[in-house]
Amino acid sequence: MKSGLSLVRIFGFALLCLSLAGCGQEGKLARGEVPLETYTAEQIFERGEFEVNRKRFEDGAKYFGEVERLYPYSTWAKRAVIMQAYAFHRAKDYENSRSSAQRYIDFYPTDEDAAYAQYLLALSYYDQIDDVGRDQGLTFQALQSLRAVIEGYPDSEYARASVLKFDLAFDHLAGKEMEIGRYYLKRDRFTAAINRFRVVVEVFQTTTHTPEALHRLVESYLSLGLAQEAQTAAAILGHNFRSSEWYEDSFALLSGQGLEPKFFKGNWLASAYRQTIKGEWL
């Protein structure tokens, strides 16, 4: 008896999938078919899942939207909103994914899936970060959204994933500063280059770009004849990254001018020295 009911349910769902296949944007089926409104919220939701499972994400998102439109106060509508955000994201429709995720957060801020909605919102920015050559506005928005996950839902699995992505996005911003700094350095615009490398050392000092930034500062300051600044940058580099190739290069540059890494007071690097070597976080 139980298996018979299961067969009936499977057969009924198969018929539903076939009949819903012609659904248009206005919630109607092709001419001669049954209107979408005659199906239950659960049936339409299942159709959305069916489309997502066969990787027709845009179609799935439309069905989830119909659940919300036709049955706005049902529990299926709540589930449909988060699934729509997911489907739009998989379709790379990041703007609509962000809109659905934000709507879920606004309507159901204390729900168990609110953390996932916030994570999807962050991903809608993060997944558009592809290379350092692009505008960094998306990176800043990704960082803000990822921080919202980390701080708002610290015990969730999404917080742990967000920490890793936050570090990568942070590193991405540092990479942009380095790219611009190198551009200026190659054109002998040393002051402009120093300003970019300084940002990396002061703001992004936990990223992978810090050793090179310190070396480029040594290079830039020596080019300007500012030996004490160059020596101080090399001293910080040697203390934190002594085994790196960047320290070896900086040491060679200084040695070529009869200098050695050494700390001097009286410049902005003194603050970086106190922070990174003496641990006096200001």
UniProtKB/TrEMBL annotation:
Tell me which residues make up the Outer membrane lipoprotein BamD-like domain.
Answer: 40-234
Q: Does the keyword Lipoprotein apply?
A: yes
Membrane topology listed for this record: Lipid-anchor
Which key words are in the record?
A: Cell outer membrane, Lipoprotein, Membrane, Palmitate, Signal
Q: What is its main location?
A: membrane
Q: Which GO BP terms apply?
A: Gram-negative-bacterium-type cell outer membrane assembly; protein insertion into membrane
Q: Which SUPFAM superfamilies match?
A: TPR-like
Concerning InterPro entries, the annotation shows: BamD, BamD-like, TPR-like_helical_dom_sf
**Endpoints of the signal sequence:** 1-21
List the subcellular locations: Cell outer membrane
Q: Which Pfam families does UniProt cross-reference here? A: YfiO
GO cellular component term of the entry, any: cell outer membrane
Q: Does the keyword Signal apply?
A: yes
Its job: Part of the outer membrane protein assembly complex, which is involved in assembly and insertion of beta-barrel proteins into the outer membrane.
Q: How does it assemble?
A: Part of the Bam complex.
Q: What's the family?
A: Belongs to the BamD family.
What is the protein's given name?
Outer membrane protein assembly factor BamD
**Organism the protein comes from:** Lentibacter algarum
What's the source species' lineage? Bacteria, Pseudomonadati, Pseudomonadota, Alphaproteobacteria, Rhodobacterales
